[in-house]
Amino acid sequence: MSRPREVTHKRVLGIALPIVLSNATVPLLGLVDTGVVGQLGDPVPIGAVAIGAIILSALYWMFGFLRMGTTGLTSQALGAGDQPEADALLSRALIIGIGGGLAIVVLQWLIFPVGFWISPASPEVETLAREYMSIRVWSAPAAIGLFGITGWLIATERTRAVLVLQVWMNGLNIALNFLFVLGFGWGVPGVAIASLLAECSGLALGLWLCRDAFGRAFWKDWARVFDRVRLLRMAAVNRDILLRSLCLEAIFVSFLFYGARAGDVPLAANQVLIQFLHVTAYALDGFAFAAETLVGHAMGARNRTRLRRAALMATQWSAAIVVLFSLCILAFGGAVIDLMTTSDEVRAAARIYLPWMVLAPVLGVGAWMLDGIFIGATRTVDMRNMMAITTVIYILAVWALMPIFGNHGLWASLMVSFVARTITLGLRYPALERAAER
Predict the structure, then answer these.
(1) Dist CA 52 CA 283 (whole Å)
(2) What is the DSSP-derived secondary structure letter of residue 5?
């Protein structure tokens, strides 16, 4: 292991910027998926791809803990100078990810009907969606295994490799979409095959990008890989992250359901505006990942000063980004709304609620960055508990504000949840710093 490097602005940006660029390719793929089937002149294929992708994405998202947990644990191992454990973590992550993907493949006959029960569609859409899912599901081991690879690469500060991986997968997927759907006329199955090939090739590329680990013997030190104590710790970290993520997802899903009660136009306006929030989150991911990595290294090295410096530097950059985003939304939000919908009613409603989107990045940056800091420190019990408290506060805010202020009350409740996450995690931050010295 080399001597630990100091935390600098250059190092923070070196981790963050490739992630920001790689995230920019994600919505582009969704646009192309929709666009190519939209050329078929029939709404059914569009709905089938949308429903099928949502169900599979929700299944894969259940394993999102693997990315975060692997980053936190690996960065701490590297900070402690424990390369054998860092390499063993890559093996554990791949075993969990590929094993989880295989379980989805085996249980698809049970999972798919549940998905359609939750997200009902017309018989025509459901038939095509089943065809799409029955093809793409075979890449589940690759898609979920990539969570572990991505987490490991981020922990080792190789976010340029993550960028290469994302550009390759999404670029190949887009090219194959055009070839299979518009060139060969394969329709919805063509979209599924394109995703299948892109995700499988992504796993192969990801393994190649981790080739230095496979060049050492530690990754196949099975006594270490399957060490009971280390496995239990990894399981506990991943369990807590999963429970925290379920609470967070409950907030956003209920936001959608509560918005539906306000009427069709406010619901549509909310869906347009929530895209601003998603873009902001994608941009801040890079700096949250930088916090995960650098805080994890400092925690592993038991260096409280370096931990605080990493947390402050990453947060400073995030704060600058959110101010820029808020100003851009204030200046250009109306024009973006006009591009996203042609409905005059939805445009007018979205403009009414647009000020909440100007406020959201400012109120949310603390929560997003503290998530990254706590993941890096693997203080996942705090994350789980504070997220549960935040969920209760959000529900109480909805009950109190929405009957009085309608859709404005719903947006205010979401802002309350951001502030609650910041305050509750912030109160636990001193304990996190103290843990770095034990």
Answers:
(1) 27
(2) P
Q: Which residues contact 375 (CB under 8 A, 6 or more apart)?
A: 68, 69, 71, 72, 241, 292, 296, 383
Buried b (16+ CB within 10 A) or exposed e, 316-340: ebbbebbeebbebbeeebeebbeeb
Rg from Cα positions in the chain = 22
**Nearest to residue 200, comparing CAs of 149, 138, 147?**
138
Distance CA 361, CA 326 (A): 7
DSSP state of 208: H
What does 291-306 look like in DSSP terms, one character per residue?
A: HHHHHHHHHHHT-HHH
- The string of pLDDT tens digits covering residues 139-157 is 999 999 999 999 999 999 9
Report the largest interatomic distance among the alpha carbons of the chain, rounded to a whole angstrom: 64
Task: Give the torsion sign (CA, 203, 158, 3, 86).
Answer: negative
The CA-atom distances, in angstroms, between 231 and each of 236, 255, 326, 413, 425 are 9, 36, 43, 39, 26
- Residues 6+ positions from 119 with CB-CB distance below 8 Å: 51, 54, 55
Residues 45-79: b if buried by 16+ CB within 10 A, e if exposed: bbbbbbbbbebbeebbeebbbbbbbbbbbbbbbbb
Query: H or E segment at 67?
Result: helix 65-79
Contact between 429 and 315 under an 8 Å Cβ cutoff? The reply is: no
- pLDDT tens, position by position, 44-89: 888 888 788 888 988 898 899 999 999 999 999 999 999 999 999 9
Query: What is d(CA 58, CA 61) in angstroms, rounded to the nearest whole number?
Result: 5
pTM: 0.91
Residue 119: HSE in the Cβ half-sphere, 13 Å Cα cutoff: 19
Residue located via tokens 């500060």? 157
The gap between the terminal CA atoms of the chain, to the nearest Å, is: 22
Residues whose CB falls within 8 Å of the CB of residue 352, separated by 6 or more in sequence, listed in order? 269
